[in-house]
């Protein structure tokens, strides 16, 4: 079972993304900021990261830069933000994001992109 880490300081956003991803049978864990995400990743790396941009302690850009600089297997990352400017997207890709989505993310959008990045088949709302 593929493991996904949701990193966001908003509990409602983490819960929303968790429900979507668990409906497709992914194993989901949560972190409230980049520091907690790094700690969890060092214990057991994840297959995909869903990362908010603006968080206290360590933001999404810093988290992805740190993850990409480590000599560990590299997993794809989706950066999710309310920041809609091209500058924010470019900054996310430079930090190591594979995809940049705007909040609020629709369930089908999140699932289809997660499946694509994980090499899974997405055939609608829920994976078989």
From TrEMBL:
The modification 4-aspartylphosphate is found at residue 52. It comes from the Bacteria. CDD domains: REC (cd00156). Keywords: Phosphoprotein. Residues 3-118 form the Response regulatory domain. Gene3D superfamilies: 3.40.50.2300. It holds the Pfam family Response_reg. One of its GO terms (biological process) is phosphorelay signal transduction system. This is Response regulator. It comes from Candidatus Methylospira mobilis.
